[in-house]
Amino acid sequence: MAEPDRTVQFTRELLWHGAVGEEPRKPPVTVLLGPVGSGKTHALDRIDADLGWGVVHSRFDFGDAGPSPADVLTRLAYGFSRGWRHRAKPRFLRFALALIAARADLGTTDYTRDKATLRRLLEEFHRDRRPRWVDATVGLGVRVATATGTVPAPIADAFSAELPKLVRAVRPRLAQALRSLRDVEWFQGDDAYDALIEINRLARGREADPERLTAWLLEAFLADVKENHRRMSGPERRSPCDCPESRRRPHLHTWVALLDNVDHPGGLAFLRALTAARERHHGTPDPLLVVATSGSWRGEWGDELGRVWRPPWQPGTGVGRAVPDCGRASYEHWTGPPDARSSAYYPVLLEPLGVGAVAELLGRDVPRAHAEFAHRATGGLPGAVRHVARVLLDQEIVPGARDLLGAGGPEPWQSWLSALGLSTVDVDELVAAAPFATAPWLVQPRAEGAVVQPRIGPILTELRASLWVRAGEGVGGHDQVTLHPWLAGNLASALARHDGGTPGYRAQFAALRAVAGTDEVRLAYCRLAVGEFPAVVDLFERDFPDLQHLDWLDRLTLVVHAPDDQPLGAGYHELREQLVKADREHQPARTPVRNELARLIASSWLAANPFAVRGSAQNRDIELALVNLARASELADTAQLYTFADRAARGLWP
Questions:
Q1: Is residue 558 packed enough to be buried (19+ CB in 10 Å), middle (13-18) or exposed (0-12)?
Q2: What Cα–Cα distance (Å) separates residue 590 from each residue in 198, 539, 554, 585?
Q3: Distance of CA 407 to the CA centre of its chain
Q4: N or C: lower Cβ tally within 10 Å for the chain?
Q5: What is the sign, positive or negative, of the torsion defined by CA atoms of 211, 216, 218, 219?
């Protein structure tokens, strides 16, 4: 059996509610973050399959509509109410009774008369095995909600089938359900019908209050979850449990709500209402783990998470705790050190696929070279891997080749960019601004220097909010903020092959160079992007004898990641020789250091292009140039050059 992925392992860790006899743990609202194509829904599919019948769970997707919290609770309660092996059947008595009260059309504004009508209807409901008024009330409520747009048609169709089943479960236990309302914190008085009339008024009265109604329904729902968990979740000896200590200690699992696309309409409102309901209780925590997915960090959603957590594109100098990659996430990290500010939410970044996972996604018989190229070209983005797989079908992977993803025109880059789902940015506008959107110093949260390109501010804001920009540790230990390599590569490639009426690749990089000011490293980045190779060698030759090698290498790393518009039909060796020849013609009086620098910068620049096939010959060329520079250096920190040479030999730099 294959080793489960990290999202599955992480969820298994959070499932632990406590050993028998111990104080139960408080479960978080975990939000798996990632841009379009990062595998968020796939991760939920894997978690769902892993939970199987061993853990009580339910699922909802916000991607198709904008449901209310009550709609989501109804679907979750229905999912939890399935039959589970070796367990009693869940009963959502309080919640179903509250739904009956909320949807009943009592037809008057007289409190006493309404109360009597509701009592009579419920007594009829209790006696009659086929209470037609329940089906009529539910059906009418769904039809009205659909007609008014409060419940979208796909959700209404599901509720037409699910809601009556939840409601009918109350019939044989009506007296118990009425008594159980006393456990709801907001219940007041000794008469349960008073509470039900209050719910009806909140739902259908002249001064309806949807927020307070949602709070009522959540109180009832969470009370039902607690009671069912207590009744159903004894030590699960027959469950296929992989908890680390499961064989030594009988223990309890949480229940799990899987929520996809919570950044879509209705998602944040539901999570906010749920966390508010939880915060009102300071006793035993409810046994409900929420695992949600979000493809954005923007607006109110960013404010909700940003109370404790730093945005993913914010480097370590910002306020708040860093959002971890899933591989480093844990329950202990969420709770944090004793002085850490607590949060109901636990945002976690989905990690890119490794080469092995990319190979698995491509297919069993895919050659290793195909998997390595797809991993490098896509940055491990699952959606991009599938895109590249179609392009690479039956193609041979030749080291040094640059035309595997298309030799002419804007495809396949333009079509993939159209699928990004960016809400405020036109694709043509994004491509035209590619130099500004990919420049490392402009991607920073607080971009340095003037930006004259129209609309670049909204474009960068959109890319950050859509999680295409991430902070990470730089090679020299400095914080870096980078655009996702798949997106950056597509933007530069689309612009380089763009033949429309807007300014082209060279003109746009010239505009970027104009805002670089006197910063020589930024100027070198722009010059290399447009092929002014000898000027870049001049800069690094001048600084090599005096600048500390780690700082020099950090600058070189930034510069050689500049994109290129070199011919796709020409291979690595041909282009490298052309670049070195151009430098010899520019500077005929050569030194050994100049020769090595020309070869190093040319090889590194061509190797940094993620859409080019990197081979062992390139790795050796970069390694040898760095080793020879270390031997020629008169500074004390040549170890850095050897370290980078070793990384280059393994294909890890630049």
A1: buried
A2: 89, 15, 25, 10
A3: 32
A4: N
A5: positive
More confident residue, 289 or 403: 289
* Selection from 198, 341, 213 nearest residue 277 by Cα: 213
Q: Are 498 and 504 in contact (CB under 8 A)?
A: yes
Give residues with Cβ within 8 angstroms of 256, minimum separation 6: 11, 15, 47, 51, 55, 56, 57, 58, 288, 289, 290, 291
Q: H or E segment at 489?
A: helix 485-496
Nearest CA to 494 out of 559, 435, 580, 573 is that of 435
Higher pLDDT, 122 or 482: 482
- Inter-residue contact 257 to 57 (CB < 8 Å): yes
Instruction: At 448, give phi and psi (nearest 5°).
Output: -90, 140
Query: Whose structure tokens read 């909320």?
Result: 102
Q: What is the spatial distance between Cα 275 and Cα 281, in angstroms, rounded to a whole number?
A: 10
Cα 149 to Cα 166: distance, rounded to the nearest angstrom: 23
Task: Determine which helix (DSSP H) or strand (DSSP E) holds 258, and give its type and residue range.
Answer: strand 255-260
> What is the number of residues in the chain?
654
At CB < 8 A and 24+ separation, what contacts does 449-454 make?
449/515, 449/516, 449/517, 449/519, 449/522, 450/515, 451/515, 452/511, 452/514, 452/515, 453/511, 453/512
Cβ pair 282, 84 in contact under 8 A:
no
542 pLDDT more than 50? yes
Give DSSP secondary structure letters for 449-467: S---STTHHHHHHHHHHTT
What is the C-alpha separation between 624 and 626, in angstroms, rounded?
Answer: 5
Calpha distance 133→121 (Å, rounded) = 8
d(CA 456, CA 464): 12
CB-based contacts of 328, cutoff 8 Å, min separation 6: none
H or E segment to which residue 107 belongs: none
Give the separation between CA 359 and CA 367, rounded to whole angstroms: 8
Cβ neighbourhood burial of 240 (10 Å; 0-12, 13-18, 19+) = exposed
Q: Are strands 255-260 and 57-61 parallel, antiparallel or unpaired?
A: parallel
* CA proximity to 71, closest of 141, 127, 168: 141
Residues linked to residue 482 through DSSP beta bridges, in sequence order: 470
Residue with the larger pLDDT of the pair 282 and 61: 61
Residue 245, classed as helix, strand or coil, is coil
Q: What is the pLDDT of residues 87-138, one digit of tens each?
A: 788 888 888 888 888 877 776 678 888 888 888 877 777 666 554 545 555 4
